[in-house]
């Protein structure tokens, strides 16, 4: 689910001290070149760039004019925006520091698909101009809260923007999982794993596992089994306030692992119970364009729309073949 807030044209006080947190892939050479451009352009506009110490060192930006080192515990504190240079993995890392702060996240794609990104590498100058002028809108995207229990005791808590997955730990063995919705058992899957995703994550792992694409403004949660050995193994779309749970069968064929956004993980013994609900803390994404989600799908997945005659229909021209 997404809600949109416009801050386009917000006035900037001449005495205002503006700061932007810059997050970049530390091992991507292109990220260093783009980061230097961003730092220099923002510095010229009177905006200070804040970076984590290890990233500033890795990218050769430590000590560069216009760059300050972020607070290790609260890197986004005092920043108006978190600008991320990289692919979806780097953007998810940026979401970890922006979530819960007032700073929205703006992604510049340096990877492949970059579905979470708002701009591309070649648009960097225009992107910086949007930042300087505060010419963007902000969308709030639903996130997930997850708790893992062992013998009834909570042993792990985390969150996810895209998805929570329970997966087999051993490649050669399946995992057996009981799916539960709103306190009632649904079915048992012998499978490679189960994905619980947000609408934002519907185009990520859940999509690869055969789940549907869900528009960001839809309020829903997805549950998608991965390579399940069962007749009932279709993806499920449930209400946003549903309480989802997955239990690793005690006599299962193998142990499991819990992953959040493919970044944070914990091992799961047989008998573990994983509960997933909608979080009350969203991730805020800065948007530069008002183009519909359909256009983003077409662009990011390079979909074939050859033969579409929408413009002709809108103009009242004949659309049949000659």
UniProtKB/TrEMBL annotation:
<keyword id="KW-0547">Nucleotide-binding</keyword>
<protein>
    <recommendedName>
        <fullName>NAD kinase</fullName>
        <ecNumber>2.7.1.23</ecNumber>
    </recommendedName>
</protein>
<dbReference type="InterPro" id="IPR017438">
    <property type="entry name" value="ATP-NAD_kinase_N"/>
</dbReference>
<keyword id="KW-0418">Kinase</keyword>
<dbReference type="Pfam" id="PF01513">
    <property type="entry name" value="NAD_kinase"/>
</dbReference>
<feature type="binding site">
    <location>
        <position position="192"/>
    </location>
    <ligand>
        <name>NAD(+)</name>
    </ligand>
</feature>
<dbReference type="InterPro" id="IPR002504">
    <property type="entry name" value="NADK"/>
</dbReference>
<dbReference type="GO" id="GO:0006741">
    <property type="term" value="P:NADP+ biosynthetic process"/>
</dbReference>
<dbReference type="InterPro" id="IPR016064">
    <property type="entry name" value="NAD/diacylglycerol_kinase_sf"/>
</dbReference>
<dbReference type="GO" id="GO:0003951">
    <property type="term" value="F:NAD+ kinase activity"/>
</dbReference>
<keyword id="KW-0521">NADP</keyword>
<dbReference type="GO" id="GO:0046872">
    <property type="term" value="F:metal ion binding"/>
</dbReference>
<comment type="function">
    <text>Involved in the regulation of the intracellular balance of NAD and NADP, and is a key enzyme in the biosynthesis of NADP. Catalyzes specifically the phosphorylation on 2'-hydroxyl of the adenosine moiety of NAD to yield NADP.</text>
</comment>
<feature type="binding site">
    <location>
        <begin position="88"/>
        <end position="89"/>
    </location>
    <ligand>
        <name>NAD(+)</name>
    </ligand>
</feature>
<dbReference type="GO" id="GO:0005524">
    <property type="term" value="F:ATP binding"/>
</dbReference>
<feature type="binding site">
    <location>
        <begin position="203"/>
        <end position="208"/>
    </location>
    <ligand>
        <name>NAD(+)</name>
    </ligand>
</feature>
<dbReference type="GO" id="GO:0005737">
    <property type="term" value="C:cytoplasm"/>
</dbReference>
<dbReference type="InterPro" id="IPR017437">
    <property type="entry name" value="ATP-NAD_kinase_PpnK-typ_C"/>
</dbReference>
<keyword id="KW-0963">Cytoplasm</keyword>
<keyword id="KW-0520">NAD</keyword>
<feature type="binding site">
    <location>
        <position position="173"/>
    </location>
    <ligand>
        <name>NAD(+)</name>
    </ligand>
</feature>
<comment type="similarity">
    <text>Belongs to the NAD kinase family.</text>
</comment>
<feature type="binding site">
    <location>
        <begin position="162"/>
        <end position="163"/>
    </location>
    <ligand>
        <name>NAD(+)</name>
    </ligand>
</feature>
<dbReference type="Pfam" id="PF20143">
    <property type="entry name" value="NAD_kinase_C"/>
</dbReference>
<feature type="binding site">
    <location>
        <position position="93"/>
    </location>
    <ligand>
        <name>NAD(+)</name>
    </ligand>
</feature>
<keyword id="KW-0067">ATP-binding</keyword>
<feature type="active site" description="Proton acceptor">
    <location>
        <position position="88"/>
    </location>
</feature>
<dbReference type="GO" id="GO:0019674">
    <property type="term" value="P:NAD+ metabolic process"/>
</dbReference>
<keyword id="KW-0808">Transferase</keyword>
<dbReference type="GO" id="GO:0051287">
    <property type="term" value="F:NAD binding"/>
</dbReference>
